[in-house]
Design brief:
6-stranded parallel beta sheet; 7-stranded parallel beta sheet; about 375 residues; 13 strands; globular
Length: about 375
């Protein structure tokens, strides 16, 4: 399979794209890829480091209000479309995939213009501006939440889940002892995304002392940028602090309760693994989509949520105690979150891609 894939800006878009790439490689080892991303964000370094051919384009996102900056954005979009047309014409892909971020807009538009089969994936419960725009140009659309199905044309949209979920299931289980944890105690994993959160970390630095004498353990992941400021603190013996965990799903598999942001990829892993979770959604994201992601689970009694602005030591520790000590409540949440997990998301997406290719009349 020859694939052009595009995603950019954040790990929430990039890691699902990588999960799709890895699934295609597993099924068809001789597949070839070109990844189109931005010229200045995290994918520009990450993707080439993985040995995936990379093309960077200069592009910015539209601002959702009247501003002169949008004229520059429009100019860059038109310039990027021209470059994408040439990349796709030269590479002759079987399919072109957009996994989110404004960088996908000129890529999918160019692919459509050339008559190439196209697929986009929406990770969040709130549809991104680029995917909203591209929905009229693509052949198929995959979504992570059933609540998002109605946001796209019925004949195009498919509930696929997030491809990160399948990778999480296949990840090897971690040993608690590697983190200085006990095998016979319940584990609460606290992690605010791969980079961590300055605001929440500052609160946790105080809250962690409140877990002294609890009959469960805490593993707090600070994020690498914040670890130095906290590593010298003397926390209770049942609290362990680490900067980063490379394969987080491996630890999630031995976790009893998770405290997390509500990014789409993390949520797909949580539902796939069936982990009861307290969400603290980031208030700093576009359209407050993390709150709406979390709300989707909370409404189904599949998670709990506390907003960052409402976070305080007493209510936070009480919430953890309450869910761990109430067996019926814990069991209900675990059953409900497990029902929402889509464990074969990458396979579903791969099957859609194969069907598109088989039905394709070559554009070149």
């Amino acid at each position: 399979m020859r694939v052009v894939i595009s995603a950019g800006g954040t790990g929430g878009h990039i890691y699902p794209a990588l999960a799709i790439i890895n699934k295609i490689k597993k099924e068809e080892p001789n597949s070839e890829f070109i990844y189109i991303g931005t010229h200045n964000r995290m994918e520009k370094d990450l993707i080439p480091s993985l040995g995936i051919p990379y093309e960077g384009i200069e592009i910015t996102g539209f601002i959702r209000k009247l501003t002169l900056e949008n004229f520059k954005t429009l100019f860059l979009f038109l310039k990027a479309r021209k470059k994408c047309l040439k990349i796709i014409e030269d590479f002759k892909p079987d399919v072109v995939i957009g996994a989110g971020g404004y960088v996908t807009a000129p890529v999918i538009w160019a692919a459509h213009k050339l008559g190439c089969k196209t697929f986009i994936h929406e990770q969040n419960s709130v549809v991104g501006l680029s995917n909203k725009y591209l929905s009229k140009y693509v052949d198929k659309i995959g979504v992570s939440f059933d609540s998002t199905l109605g946001e796209f044309p019925k004949d195009k949209v498919v509930l696929t889940g997030n491809p990160c979920s399948e990778k999480a299931i296949q990840t090897k289980v971690a040993k608690k002892s590697d983190f200085g944890l006990s095998e016979d105690k319940k584990l609460v994993l606290i992690v605010m995304g791969s980079l961590g959160s300055k605001t929440v970390n500052e609160k946790m630095e105080e809250y962690l002392y409140g877990f002294r004498n609890k009959n469960y353990e805490i593993l707090f992941v600070t994020g690498e940028h914040y670890y130095d400021s906290i590593k010298s603190k003397r926390f209770p013996s049942n609290v362990k602090v680490v900067p980063f965990i490379k394969e987080l799903p491996s630890v999630m598999k031995v976790t009893d309760l998770m405290v997390s942001r509500a990014g789409a990829s993390t949520m797909s892993e949580i539902t796939a693994l069936g982990i009861p979770t307290i969400f603290i959604p980031s208030p700093y994201v576009t359209n407050n989509h993390q709150y709406k992601n979390a709300e989707d689970l909370v409404k189904k009694d599949a998670a709990l949520m506390i907003e960052e602005k409402d976070l305080n030591k007493i209510s936070f520790i009480h919430m953890i105690d309450d869910i761990l000590e109430d067996e019926e409540k814990y069991k209900k949440i675990k059953e409900n979150v497990s029902k929402l997990g889509i464990k074969d998301s990458s396979t579903r997406i791969y099957d859609i891609l194969k069907e598109l290719i088989l039905n394709d009349k070559k554009f070149y």
